[in-house]
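Q: Convert this sequence to structure tokens.
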Amino acid sequence: MLGERIRSVRKAKGFKLGDLAEITDLSSSYISQLERGLIEPSLTSLRKISNALNIPIYLLMDDVAKENPVVKKDERVKMFFPNSAVSYELMTSVENGEKSGAKMLAAKFSLRPKTSESEEYTIHEAEEILVLVKGELEVTLGQESYQLKPGDTIYILGNVPHKITNFGESFAEGYYIVSPPQIKNF
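A:
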């Protein structure tokens, strides 16, 4: 379970519950309930926890161990976050990538109609390439907004505040490649 994995990583990294609470600006009670599986985290909270533990979000998820560098379509790790409009299918071998020092990760994403990936702008050091396959997206980089249609690609430099919104009537689907490897709240 997610909570058990968070507890395991927290303890392995030498963090006490209060330490993690202070770093993430989440309450000790909230983290304790999360670790015991009593509540589901928001994607924002999960991102804060993974950043504090210095571990990619996808390594906190269940069933991510893969030894083979080939990822079959029907064997992809699927990630759904509570209270999030976006879902992912990992297209690269997670465990093998971590062990071998992989420098990128590829994922298929799906963003519900009339939603944003996050209420806030996302900012991180990783660089991303997003390829839209279906639907329409508006990608805001800093103060500039770009409209993407199927087949369009956008490169997002590291440390650029960005937000991705699906104003369309249907799901927006595509792929993103990120370096260094991490799953964002899309």
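The first strand starts at residue 78 and ends at 80.
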